[in-house]
Amino acid sequence: MKKTRRKIEAALKAKIALEALREQSTVTDLAQRYQVHVNQIYAWKKQLQDQAVRAFDAGAGRDGEAAHELEVEKLHAKIGQLTVERDFLARRSGR
């Protein structure tokens, strides 16, 4: 019988990583309390430390990135549409 993977929400990951950063209890204690592997807590802790700069970045921020990603998606969709139309018209014209 296969064991299904447990999906842990981002909020819980952040909570566990913050507790690990505070070092009020050991990572082993946190792993037992939340029933996750010790290595996973270390990975979340490192990820939180690496991504913390983005929270205070006065540059583009998340809204700027989201708008950029949306614009790129729209442009890719338009390119796909124009490619399909070009191929259709090329077939119809006998090329």
From TrEMBL:
Molecular-function GO terms, alphabetical = sequence-specific DNA binding; transposase activity
**What are its GO biological-process terms?**
DNA transposition
The cross-references to InterPro entries, in alphabetical order and at most eight, read: Transposase_8, Trp_repressor/repl_initiator, WH-like_DNA-bd_sf
Q: Which SUPFAM superfamilies match?
A: TrpR-like (SSF48295)
Where on the tree of life does the source sit, at the highest rank? Bacteria
A Pfam family the protein falls into: HTH_Tnp_1
Designated name of the protein = Transposase
Organism in which the protein naturally occurs? Bradyrhizobium archetypum
